Predict the 3D structure of the following.
Amino acid sequence: MPHFIYPFTHVGNLGKDSIYRPYVPVMVMCPNTGLAQGFMALVDTGADACLMPGGVTRILGNAINTGKSNPNGATGVGATKMPTWKHELIITLMSPDKRGPIWIGKTLEIDCAEQTNLSVLLGTIGFLENFKATFDYANKRLILEFEHPKPAKEEEKK
């Protein structure tokens, strides 16, 4: 099973303590426009699904409110709800050195919020469910492992 090691990103300090978070490089593509853009995305084990800030949809050629309105919205810390719109997007995980893709997700309807101060969040549905993830806080790194899909010819032989 191939594995990739992503060093945590230093995001600030809390008193004398440094704060590190598991960010990974991704490419987000909108299949409707064919546009794609790279982002650093926060891998969030507390998020049930992925969430994109509204700026992502604009960069990819869509207005935020052109997606399907999600009546439930997204719920964050303290059960705070925010309105969201679902947009079809494809998330591609890039190698730790950002030189190439190592995993390409399927087209998903991902919640996008108007807020622009959010990180791209990678939650369980559509992202983490595809990996064995080890959050190694002692060494400030995230290890992602996944099975490569077998080529069609190998599947047919079984």
Observations:
- Confidence is low (pLDDT under 50) at residues 154-158.
- The first strand starts at residue 3 and ends at 7.
- The two ends are 20 Å apart (CA to CA).
- The helical segments are 54-59, 152-157.
